[in-house]
Amino acid sequence: MRQLFPVTDMTASKTQVSDAGADREWSLDELADAYAYPEGEERWLRANMVSSLDGAGQHEGRSQPLSSDTDMRIFGTLRGLADVVVVGAETVRLEGYRPARAREVFAARRAAAGQGPAPAIAVVTASLDLDLALPLYTSPLVPTLIVTGAGAPADRIAAARAAGVEVLLAGDGAAVDPARAVALLAERGLRRQLTEGGPRLLGQFTAAGVLDELCLTVSPTMTAGDAQRIAHGPSLALPTRFGLASLLEQDGFLFSRYRRI
Fold first, then answer.
1. What separation in angstroms does the CA of 1 have from each of 23, 28, 61, 71, 193?
2. Where are the beta strands (DSSP E) in the chain?
3. Lowest mean per-residue pLDDT among 10-19, 27-36, 43-52, 105-114
4. In this predicted model, what pLDDT tens digit does every residue of 13-27 receive, in sequence order?
């Protein structure tokens, strides 16, 4: 992996190229240092997504065909740093989500930060059309949360709570209010937030102005077809500007990190 731009300096000129990251495999500790959450923030929501060269955020409904081994190492690192992984119910179904697991390589770092052994998974859903018999809900290392609106089907809210799953109400209608959702999670001490999609959820976070950082892997692939982009949803009156924080490369994959300006 090569470091193309500084990991922490957002003001660096795009003409500067670092030779500090010569082609080699970075350790997970190095990746964790590079992707560390900023200090002193009440909450920080970062997204981790992958895109093809022609803008597809998935292929045949899944992100895995666009990914690589290094992309998955960064995926695991971002999870290893997060308090909570926020994900849409459709992505849970399509990607076959399971509970986050504890990883020894991040244990000391998480303990020093006052974190539990693994991030919680927070499933965002308006309908609560969920299979509560899945391991994600029945046997997580850290209890899974369901985030929905107060107007969601009352019988399904009751069923989830009867199954021992905590339900957070973020919004007055059935739909989730993104700003309220991230605030509720932060109030629970889950301030280092990571969303892995899907595109609709990221589109909602973007439109609501609550996305602080985007970690985007650009995959050297072309998919054609009609797959969604990484963010899909209501348009903003004006595009939100992000600044480049770091850029890494390996085998033609670009691993970028942008922060909202």
1. 5, 12, 28, 11, 26
2. 2-5, 44-51, 84-88, 120-124, 145-148, 166-169, 192-195, 213-218, 242-250, 253-260
3. 10-19
4. 433 334 455 678 899
Question: Hey, is 111 helix, strand or coil?
Answer: helix
Helices then strands, counting H and E runs in the chain, come out as 8, 10
Tell me: cis bond preceding 203? Omega within 30 of 0 counts.
Answer: no
pLDDT of residue 8: 62
pLDDT top residue among 132 and 25:
132
State the pairing for strand pair 2-5/84-88.
unpaired
- Helix or strand or coil: residue 20? coil
Which structure tokens are listed for 187?
């109030």
Read out DSSP for 84-103?
A: EEEEEHHHHHHHT-------
CA distances for 199 relative to 90, 133, 159, 209, 232, angstroms: 10, 26, 28, 15, 5
pLDDT band at 64 (very low <50, low <70, confident <90, very high): confident
Phi/psi of residue 193, each to 5°? -105, 140
CA gap 148, 154 in Å, rounded: 11
pLDDT in tens, 83-94: 999 999 998 998
The helix/strand/coil state of 24 is coil
Report yes or no on whether pTM surpasses 0.85.
yes
CA-nearest of 123, 185, 131 to 148 is 123
Residue 66 · residue 219 · CB < 8 Å: yes
Rounded CA-CA distance 149/124 in Å is: 9
